[in-house]
Amino acid sequence: MTETLEPSRSRASRPRFKRVGEPERIELTDDDIAILKWVWKLRFVRADDLHRLFDGRSSDKLSRRLMRLYRSGILDRPLAQIDRYHQGGSKALVYGLDNAGAKYLKDELEVPVTGSDWRGRNRSYTRENLDHTLAVSRFMIDLELLCRKRPELSVISFEEILARAPESTRRSSHPGRWRVDLRYRNVHGSVHIIPDAIFGLRIRKAEGRSLTSYYFLEIDRGTMTIAPSRAVQESDAFLYRATMLRKFVTYAESFRQKLHEAQYGIHMPKVLTLTTSQIRAEAMRKVAKAVAAELGVPEELFAFGLDEVSSRVS
Length: 314
Hints:
Helices cover about 45% and strands about 20% of the residues. It contains 15 helices and 10 strands. The protein has helices at about 30-40, 45-55, 60-70, 80-85, 100-110, 120-125, 125-150, 160-165, 165-170, 230-235, 235-240, 245-255, 260-265, 280-295, 310; strands spanning about 45, 75, 95, 155, 180-185, 185-195, 195-205, 210-220, 270-275, 300-305. The chain has a 5-stranded mixed beta sheet with strand order 4-7-8-9-10. The two termini are about 35 Å apart.
């Protein structure tokens, strides 16, 4: 049973997006803390994805626990999801970290949580931003569950990558982004790279060795222009218009300048782009191949995928 947005008589006295009365006081369990860490890492998580992560627990009990964590101010329910409820049907609730949860992780567990007004940040999210974040969190949870089924595989989290990164990256207020100076055709300027997620995969071999691969994840929801007109590509407008071509050029320049090595100590990453259709994936692959040839970087820097996790991380 998944906690959903569909109407329920038993919950009619408890508004889904408004707390009534004083916050509940609860003692956090080990599972509660694990939930908080997942929500902190992924920013927003759907209730049904939390059910998949904690499938050893009763679905009903987990739903009730999520409700109590919300009523206590430890977890939040972002308001950007409200319109999904008014559309009708059964849709899983979305959870983010609330102020009390952020404070607990930072003060009690020394998790490097930044900022204090998480509830305010949650309120600033738009529906489009929320849907994009949920697509990223769904992928990362799919990947985690895949690794649980295959003991030779394990995820290298961004936190683990960051712990081994150069001191300048560890001390940065924005360790998940870096600046790239572009020189592309007639365009000179700087662009920041901010991957949707940064992770690695470790594959343990029978003889005791292990192989590692690192990925910069980009989730494409089919709304961004793949390549602008030639006139835009050869003008300063190229720097300021978000296109897939600009992403590929920026990643290629970062690779050429070895900025990913300076940022994380990663020598051969892959830029993994997940998109909405095979046709769109092939169109992007063609553009990325041309960028790789023009800038002199390996074609295998870019990888594309659609549905199954196992096919996304070749």
